[in-house]
Specification:
six-stranded antiparallel beta sheet; elongated; 12 helices; 11 strands; single chain; 347 residues; binds iron/sulfur cluster; alpha/beta
Length: 347
């Protein structure tokens, strides 16, 4: 009797990884999935937080994919290890601060190490030749295989026929003729295959799976590094960049202003770490202040908080300021006129 082969699939929660896994699974390979948590994932967060996204489906798409496939999913936190990928990508960045090629190499490397440690035979990804300008080009596909160490134990079922046969194909663990030759940016082949498998309701994230591809997010991250004079971050930093209106009046002094109820609630969870402001006389945002502030800065921050409150047209607004030790002061300030806020303060 032939031995049943085992593969581990990278599961992002998107359509490509779902299909790639299913293509291998239907050839009788035993499959488990890995989903990596980097802290930059778009998944869930913004939809979960924002009031205006209330109607959108809230679910962990990687778990949903695992459920569709009937496989075990390992969700692995790589926040700390991933930092060096973001800070020092040896292949550089994409259009924003997305180190896609290094990221792919790192994730395949981690999956390959997991494969070896758990007695699995090969790694499966949903990559498609030509789909992404940096990480999924014909010339970068071998780079991922080589630099991750997975070599020809890395199978990309959606575009395998465009690539040299890998070990699982040569050994007959999977039938190459039943793999695919997708290429390019069109999503049609994937959508057709999904419908053939009967998958509906899969995630189609607009603009990519991670915030590092988002120009506004990348600008805020670059600003954080410039302001602190060091290229580094903690998980809380990168979470807070996903939420609120960010204004930087000067280096070392930034305001994070909740834009709506959901964001204010999210920021509440961080208020004990920051000096924070609330408008007392009128409904308004929760404002976190990042950095050391002078008396003048505090008045400015209170006027900005007033500006973004429902008291923006009132002659004055009462604002409380509470420091991380819980000491509260109350200020009475005129709201700053919108036209007086320099555009360059908005990140
Ligand atoms: S978009 Fe983000 S998660 Fe996806 S490959 Fe690029 S850096 Fe990695």
């Amino acid at each position: 009797m032939t031995k049943q082969r085992k593969a581990v699939a990278l599961i992002s929660g998107g359509l490509d990884s779902l299909l790639a896994a299913r293509v291998v699974q239907e050839q009788g390979v035993r499959l488990e999935g890995i989903n990596f948590f980097t802290g930059f994932c778009v998944e869930g967060h913004t939809h979960a937080i924002r009031q205006r996204d209330r109607g959108k489906l809230k679910r962990n798409n990687a778990l949903w994919v695992a459920e569709q496939l009937g496989i075990k999913l390992h969700i692995i936190d790589i926040v700390d290890e991933y930092r060096h990928v973001v800070l020092n990508p040896s292949h550089g960045y994409g259009a924003n601060l997305n180190p896609c090629l290094d990221c792919k190499i790192f994730m395949v490397q981690k999956a390959h190490a997991w494969m070896r440690a758990n007695g699995f035979d090969f790694v499966v990804t949903g990559e498609v030749v030509g789909q992404r300008p940096k990480s999924q080009r014909r010339d970068t596909m071998p780079v991922v295989a080589r630099e991750s160490g997975a070599e020809d134990r890395l199978l990309r079922p959606l575009c395998a026929k465009n690539l040299p046969p890998t070990l699982p194909e040569r050994q007959g663990w999977v039938d190459r003729t039943r793999l695919h030759a997708f290429s390019g940016r069109s999503r049609k082949p994937q959508i057709d295959l999904a419908s053939r498998y009967g998958f509906e309701d899969y995630a189609q994230p607009a603009g990519g799976c991670c915030f590092l591809t988002d120009s506004s997010y990348a600008a805020k991250l670059a600003d954080l590094w410039t302001s602190r004079g060091t290229r580094d971050y903690e998980l809380d930093d990168i979470m807070l960049l996903k939420v609120g209106r960010h204004l930087r009046p000067r280096r070392g002094f930034k305001l994070i202003v909740g834009r709506e109820k959901g964001e204010n609630n999210f920021l509440e969870g961080y208020r004990k770490r920051f000096l924070h402001l609330r408008t007392l006389s009128h409904p308004g945002p929760l404002v976190l202040i990042d950095g050391e502030v002078s008396e003048t800065d505090l008045t400015l921050a209170a006027r900005l908080a007033a500006r973004f409150s429902q008291g923006r047209n009132a002659p004055s607004v009462t604002v409380s300021s509470t420091d991380p030790q819980g000491r509260t002061r109350v200020l009475e300030v005129p709201p700053m006129p919108g036209g007086d806020i320099p555009q360059e303060w908005y990140l």
